[in-house]
Amino acid sequence: MTPFCLAFRSLWSNNLGVEGGKAIAQALARAGASVMIADILEEPGKATAAEIAKTGVKTDFAKLDVRDDEQWAAAVAATISTLGGYDILINNAGIEITSLIAEIKAEDARRMCDVNIVGTVLGMKHAFRAMRPGGAAGKGGAVVNIASVAATIAFPSIAVYSGTKSAVDRMTRVGAMEAGKLGYGVRVNCIYPGLIPTDMGLQLANDIVKIGLAPDVNAAVGSVVEQTPLGKLAEVSDIADAAVFLCSNDARFITGVGLPVDGGMGM
Question: Which DSSP symbol is given to 11?
Answer without folding.
Answer: B
